[in-house]
Write a structure and sequence with these properties.
The chain has helices at about 15-20, 50; strands at about 5, 25-30, 35-40, 60. By secondary structure, the protein is α+β, with helices and mostly antiparallel strands. It has a single domain (about 5-65), classed as Alpha-Beta Plaits. The strands form 2 sheets. A two-stranded antiparallel sheet has the order 1-4. The chain has a two-stranded antiparallel sheet with strand order 2-3. Strand 2 and strand 3 (about 35-40) form a beta hairpin. It is globular.
């Protein structure tokens, strides 16, 4: 299921806690565009990034209806 980031509240920092905790590296810092990138094909919907986000900007869809 996809990971969604609300960039209206996300500080889009290279030091993102979600990036640091992601076990599959589905979230990573894109040097080319200087932004957080999501590679949903790597995401296992574990929710660790969602819990680690200090500003609640990351949302992991748990079902197809929520994406």
């Amino acid at each position: 299921m996809p990971v969604l980031i609300n960039f209206k509240i996300c500080d889009n920092a290279k030091e993102c806690n979600g990036i640091d905790i992601c076990p599959t590296e589905a979230l990573f810092w894109g040097e080319k565009n200087n932004t957080i990138i999501i590679e949903n094909s790597k995401c296992i919907s574990c929710g660790k990034c969602e819990k680690a986000c200090l500003v609640n900007a990351i949302n992991v869809a748990k079902t197809k209806e929520r994406n």
